[in-house]
Amino acid sequence: MSFVAALLLLLIAAPACSNGSRDGNTPDAGERPNIVWIVAEDMSFEIAALGDPVARTPNIDRLAAEGVTYTNAFATSGVCAPSRAALITGQYATSIGAHHMRSLDGGYQPVPPPEVKTFTEYLRAAGYYTSNQTKLDYQFSGIFTDAPITNWDEPNGLWHGRDPEQPFFAYITIFDTHESWLLGDNSTSVTDPTAVTVPPYYPDTPLVRADFARHYDNVEAMDATVGMVLDMLEEGGVLEQTLVMFFPDNGRGFPRDKRWVYDGGIHEPLIVRWPNQQQGGTQSSELVSFIDFAPTTLALAGVDVPDHMRGRVFLGPRSEPEPRYVYAQADRMDEAPDRIRAVRDRRYKYIRNYQPDTPYGQSIAFRNQLATMQEMYRLENEGALDPPADWYFRQTKPLEELYDTENDPFELTNLADEPYLRGVLEQMRDANDAWVERTGDLGSIPEAELAEQYWPNGVQPVTPAPALSARPNSNGTIEVTIQAVEGASIAYMLGEVLDDARWKLYVEPFVVPIGTLVRARAARYGWAESDEVSLRAGQ
Question: Residue 34: beta bridge partners?
């Protein structure tokens, strides 16, 4: 049983506070819904309700029956950390220096422009209780710990610590489908290996089928945790005041899926369950990008969307028009450098390979542990790896790729040189160039230069401590003001006893009784947190 599932079992009977919405009714305009993201690791469309005959997913099937399934949702990257950077900020990872997988592997963390904040800070400022469960991992934080102190009320838990009547946002990552769970002996899977469908870009061998069978087992385990989350919301009396979004962070943990911008890496199921099952059991073919999730969540919570966010609102009364294209990127993946950009509409996929002399497949130590990867190496060495499964060992890439995903869903036939699609190619090429320019794509800057810019001489800058000031009021209270350097956010706490669960986000001056101890810290994303400072109001 995964850590998330175990924790949910412990908490499922815990009391949950109602947010004040009336039973049986959609929250009124003056009432704010709870919002829960359930994020699976490394999977694609292995869902029974979406037509996969092998998948055992009764709880996700329930979500689909009670919600809206978006069939054209796309991640901005085929790997988790850059994808999550876009999800949490509403900025493309390429715009904020978060595009190389595991920036710490390059000896730095990105330092986004000063106006860029996680959307959870905006939610906290508006009165939401925000919680994260299991994984952080958006490049300017650790994988499981060390998120900026201002991002979350609860960085490793659920919503049970909130005040009565307080709306909440919860980001729950379920780890069961992660690539790492494919490692080891896959011979004991419940799923019948002969029943799975092996995409043609893999060799169809017993070892590869065993990997796929294990993946389906992992999907089933993940689905059980989805059920626990739904049960917890239902038993707490808040399910019908909560909007639930289910989606994976990127595609399956197999070569050419995870880490790539082919559809196997970025085309994802998205299910949105509205309170009271509005539009339940329906599907939408609208183009949606992960870059849209932050502004949409803010809009649903009644919070103004900052102008610097790149995405659009795609849900609710403030919905904006569907875009013509969505975009994705791939840069350094673990120890393998590259630069690839992709443009997708409902039918066609355009890919620009900025380093065409870089092979399709580069050795990545972690991925090499997969039985599927080892099988590909074995067959290649024996001269027995037939097309199209030999793609990984091609030593160069074309400058441009164009695929008709309607007729070629596995993106095997490059149509970039076809005269009848020249107009499509030119339009998507221009769209890519305009996107790169419009968003300030940093991919052309060598990573060593970015690292030096963010952490000079390889040393992480430290956020200067905030400045506290106090002014007495005529009624005997003290007004406290806290200031920090540009780009830094401030957390504060009142009282003698340190309680890491009660750091509040500073938004504006506040009033306290004389003698109150005020503690404060500042956090600039990518920098080390400041030292703590304090004052005793009025003394």
Answer: 242
> What is the domain extent for residue 304?
3-9+34-314
E strands in 87-213? 129-133, 168-174
Residues 41 and 69 in one domain: yes
pLDDT score, position 2: 63
Tell me whether residue 127 is exposed, middle or buried, using C-beta atoms within 10 angstroms of its C-beta: 0 to 12, 13 to 18, 19 or more.
middle
Read off the amino acid at residue 115. E
- Dump pLDDT digits (tens) for 326-350: 999 999 999 999 999 999 999 999 9
**Residue-level pLDDT at 120:** 98
Spatial separation of the C-alpha atoms in residues 267 and 265, rounded to whole Å: 6
Domain co-membership, 139 together with 252: yes
Does some domain include residue 408? yes
DSSP state at residue 382: T
CB 178 within 8 A of CB 225: no
Residues 473, 353 share a domain: no
Do 363 and 402 share a domain, yes or no? yes
Q: Do the beta carbons of residue 69 and residue 268 sit within 8 Å?
A: no
The pLDDT of residue 502: 78
pLDDT at position 31: 80
At 209-235, the pLDDT tens digits run: 999 999 999 999 999 999 999 999 999
Whether 105 and 253 map to the same domain: the answer is yes
The pLDDT assigned to 18 comes to: 37
User: How many of the other CB atoms lie within 10 Å of CB of 440?
Assistant: 12
Q: Which residues are catalytic?
A: 80
Token duo for residue 90: 């509403």
Rounded CA-CA distance 301/248 in Å is 22
How far apart (Å, rounded) are the C-alpha atoms in residues 450 and 458?
Answer: 11
Q: 222, 176 in Cβ contact below 8 A? A: yes
> Alpha-carbon distance 432 to 94, whole Å?
13
This model's pTM is above 0.90: yes
CATH code of 391's domain: 3.30.1120
The crossing angle, in degrees rounded to 10, of helices 206-235 and 58-66 is: 60
24 burial class (0-12, 13-18, 19+ CB within 10 angstroms)? exposed
Same domain, 382 and 488: no
Claim to verify: residue 496 and residue 472 sit in the same structural domain: yes
